[in-house]
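User: For a benchmark we're assembling, each entry needs the component sequences followed by a predicted structure for the full assembly. Here are entry 17's components. Please fill in the structure.
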Amino acid sequence: MNPLVGGLSVIGAAARRLLATIGSEARFVGDVAIGLRDLRTWIPETTTQALKLGVQSLPIALFIATFTGIVLALLASYSFTGAVPLYFVGTLVGKTVMLELAPVLTGLALAGRVGANIAAELGTMRVTEQIDALETLTYDPVAYLVVPRVVSGTLMFPLIVGASMIVGVGAGWIASVLLLHLSSPEFVKGLRLFFQTFDVEYGLVKSASFGFAVTLIGSRRGLRAEGGAVGVGRAATSAVVYSAVMILVLDAFWAVTWLLGREST
Amino acid sequence: MKRVNDAIVGLVVLVIVGALGGALAWVKGSDVGKRQHEVVARFHDVGNARVGNVVVIRGVVGGRIQGIELAPAGWVDVRMKLDPTVQMPKEPVVLLNESSLFGEWQATIVERSALPHDETVRQQIADAPHDGNVLPGATLPGIGKLTAVAGQIAGDVANVAGRVEVAFDDQAARELRSSIRNVSDLSKTLATTVRMHASDLDTLSNQLRTAIATMQRTVITVQGTAERIDSATTSKQVRDIVENLAMASSDLRQTSTQVRDLAGRFATSQTRLDSFLANSDSVMVKINRGQGSLGLFVTDASMYRRTDSLLVQMRALIADIQANPKRYVSVKLF
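Assistant: Structure for entry 17:
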């Protein structure tokens, strides 16, 4: 084969695969949107998924938030010593937890727990042909399996992150009082100093997008699993990896589109 | 089982939403269900004041800013919610100012008489509308403005310091040191001079004292002479002497007039002589330069030699004429 033709065919094949992947993923998102119309199929499953993906994820999320708050308070006091009033520990803990750490750390933790869980569950169903059986019974597998997970993930992630914000700030407060000998009024003064409702809104909206991405990626990876247990494991691994990457990409996206240029007070 | 799941999820959702809402309200300082009264103050500019900033009365937090809105005619209205226990001072005014160096702002309600002695602030208060429902307000400059001014001053000082540094270089320092040394030497010299002059003054005062004594003696002598002259004026001898003196002075005047004329003539002759000498000098200079016939004659050696040769030949010719006159003179009558 002519080397020039060979090189062009390699590039063409790569472009075709890329477009096919984008088209396939976009079609999957479209299927989810279409599945949303089938309320009677996905609504009964939503609370079950909300319990599994959201409520049962609370302990790990709150555990992470607790230690994040404590470490943030100690880091802040370490940075502020001698130069900045110590009540700014409250400011730093509050702003950092609400704007960044609670959404992102919780999102990464849930990407591992929820994303891998969804991918493994749906992958097992795929390789054991349960999904084929659903299709045989004229059930829409997307409406029955994917939509409840995506909806519950999108709704429950902000709640989990909201709880993480409260626990993280509370842990930082307790650590400041017990370890830094900062009085409660001082911590609260710092916390209230530059507080805006926007900080919470930003964190919650961001976490909702994380929940949507994690559940969507987990579902997609699980539905495309093939080759038995190895394929399920591969699907779970790729779901976690892609979810983590997507969380960081979305984090930057929201920072650029919503946070950049906004005046902080 | 499904119902239990729903209940658990619902409970969790409610708890988290309630906790989050309560935490938000608490952090924002919202006083839900608490009766408060509202106060509005009017400002030209509110600086960096924001909703939620505290309102301070006599150093105590008595409320919070609830809203900041643009008002007609270029004013800004700030709505403040105050605790019902807060008692407003007589003639209250509101100041917006920074409460710390880190960008925190607060509204401070003070009595008009307690305003800071700042002309700008007083002018802002005077400009604000004096409505019973709206308090006049003024904004104190923020730390940003102050640091900007301080920075400008620091820049000016640095500029001046730079100029001084340029002007007061090593050379200037050496010159200053030299000047100080010179002043020191001068002061030493002055001290020496003063000491010397002090001894001279002693000598001088002694001499002066001696001179005064001499003058006293002279005065006594003059006094005796005057007494003698006084006795002499009574005889005719003095008049003769005076007349003789008048005649002598008249002769002397005539003589001096003649001397003056003589001196004038002499001066004229001297001027002419000067002119003559100047002309002579000019002629001599030309002669020396070889200008003119005489100059050529004087300076040209060949002409001297030719003239000398001519004189020798003429002398020989005259001798030959004396010896043989018929050769040169022939007399014929017809």
